[in-house]
Amino acid sequence: MRVLLWYWGRRGGGAQFALCLARGLMERPDVSLALSVSREGDLVREFQALGVPCDSVPTYRNALGFALGFARVRGLARRLRRQAQLFGADVVLSAMPHLWTPLVAPALRRAGIPFVPILHDGLPHPGDPAIAWHWRLRRELAAARGAVTLSAAVEDVIRAQAPGLPLFRLPLGAHLPGEAPRGALSGTAVSHDFLFFGRIRAYKGLDLLRDAFAQLRQTHPAATLRVVGEGDIEAAAPGLSALPGVTVEPRWVADDAIPALVASARAVVLPYREASQSGVLPIALACGVPVVATPVGGLAEQLRDGETGLLAAAPTAGALAAAMARLLEDKALYASLAEGARRHGAELMDWGAQAQTLLDGIRPWVRPGSGAKVATSGTGASA
Predict the structure, then answer these.
(1) Cα(174)–Cα(17) distance, rounded to whole angstroms?
(2) 276 is in which domain, residue-wise?
(3) What tens digit of pLDDT does each residue of 247-256 get?
(4) How much of the chain is helix, strand and coil, in % rounded to 5?
């Protein structure tokens, strides 16, 4: 199968997901891979170093660049279509939606090129910007031959919006940059009991975690919590940083620093009020770190309750505090959860298997070998 992997995002978990998926696709002997990535992306050099045809297109780095870039979108749509035709792509696979995807994807459909998006979300998260969200999603789905979702929660939403569209669910792997640090697997690197890591957003329940941790400290006065993420933590959870035992670090974490950060905790805590799925959860498991999470959205299917972590009985502060206390009190349970996390995390790190599962899922929607090349002397792509 000839796959053109399309990712125009710039940084964060989406970039690592796309890079890991590209590497996994390269492992499959029946796959020829080409890439279309953002020239401004933090991982553009890593994509280029893979040694496959790679077109690095100009996108943007900030809001001004986004606004000015609209003048280039039509040309970029032609550029992507041309690359797919020259490569003879059987499918253009979008690793993650981009703000320009709904303006570009219809050109693929008009050219008869199968387009398959991997949809990380079905609805905007509460509190997140949602300008033209539904219009963008409808345009993307209308251009798609089929779509891939990463959780049942997202699949249900997409099925309701596009009843006739073929869907395939792919469990989210661990997009971990490099190998898990040894300290994570031995426990020698642990400096905090619990870690919350990720961008600070309203739906992630920092206020719920604040109240849960305050309750936990009443019975476990030595418990510690580390909160690391880009955003206004005080706005999301007023008073959290003032609680005894809490360390707050409002900052962006570079990809290569993530494994050591995760390894610094006995457990990762996800107090979300709503979730499509979590990219942090499989990373924690890959590092052998159990997870405590609220039973919302895709978290309930990602986390194997009692095997790789603990699901709170309800998305409430009391239930979350009880789950955190249980992990601290029961040493045999913790050891079992850590072993389960290591075992399942190793599976989630196998991106070759992840890629094969994806290909098996989308193969019925495309006809390998049907990609039509255009006779031309140019390449249409830059390495």
Answers:
(1) 8
(2) 182-348
(3) 999 998 888 8
(4) 45, 15, 40
